Amino acid sequence: MPIRIQDNLPAARILESENIFVMTEHRAAHQDIRPLQIVILNLMPTKVETETQLLRLLGNSPLQVDIDLMQTATHTSKNTSKEHLLEFYHTFDQLRQNKYDGMIITGAPVETLDFTEVDYWDELCAIMDWSLTNVYSTLHICWGAQAGLYHHYQVPKYSTGKKLSGIYKHRPLDPNHPLLRGFDEVFYMPHSRFTQVTQQDIEQHDALQVLALAETAGVAIVAARDARQVFVTGHCEYDRMTLAKEYNRDIQRGLSPEIPYHYFPDNNPEAVPPMLWRSHANLLFSNWLNYFVYQQ
User: Would you say residue 10 has pLDDT above 70?
Assistant: First the structure.
């Protein structure tokens, strides 16, 4: 949260030059303080696990956040009970009259399909179009980021040749950007995907800015210059053991997956992975909530 000081205090200029968020009394007096309304479109098959991961990050903020959970009507979830979906989730038709401060569109295990082959693609496009007028800022995650970049900006995705899975080292390209405020010069984030977008394609669009890159995982964070859209190609919301569960699941399916990169100590799948990304995950979500939603 910002510190509030007198408009003409000399320290204000110094703090702002150090990238410390300062709010003047004039601005504070004109703010509308109320709970933020956030809707989560959960496309992951493990809905309970994903909603828990996201709510953990959204809850680590002094801001009060009210949550609605959305599911697609054109796809039937096979991994979440109908009772849970009926009790806690709404369809687009049930929520389309609402206005939201923020929206999160999760990833989905459908990267190997062309976008138009996904059974809920048309519905997702309608939701993304609706978000432009009914949501102030939308955070897209993993495949959700690729889908959003493709739908809104025609940025294509490309196969990585094999599954990109592990914990990757990233560097911010614009450390003074509000979304990266407080980030270290190196930070880590999990990735788990078969496809990627490229910096070259994204930079064809003046409305977009690439904010963070990984040497081996490529583009990691992209933001629209008007703060209305954020695209994160990784899974900073993942728990400690999420990649391990995916790895063991793929083994049980007979897929012979590679051991996730820089994840298990000594590449030993029996070892407990260290959490290297929790602090920056919390920082990314709190920055998005504060600077891209609340302050705007």
Answer: no
Catalytic residue among 51, 111, 140, 142: 142
Closest by CA to 148, choosing from 213, 94, 182, 197, is 197
Q: How confident is the model at residue 165 (pLDDT cuts 50, 70, 90)?
A: very high
Catalytic (active site) residue 142: yes
Q: Is 237 a catalytic site residue?
A: yes
Which is nearest to 245 in space by CA: 190, 295, 287?
190
| Alpha carbon distance 257, 276 (integer Å) | 22
- Is 51:69 a contact under the CB 8 Å cutoff? yes
Pairing of strands 229-232, 218-224: antiparallel
**Among candidate residues 187, 150, 188, 166, the one with its CA nearest the CA of residue 258:** 166
Tokens representing 22? 């300062």
Confirm whether 236 is a catalytic residue: no
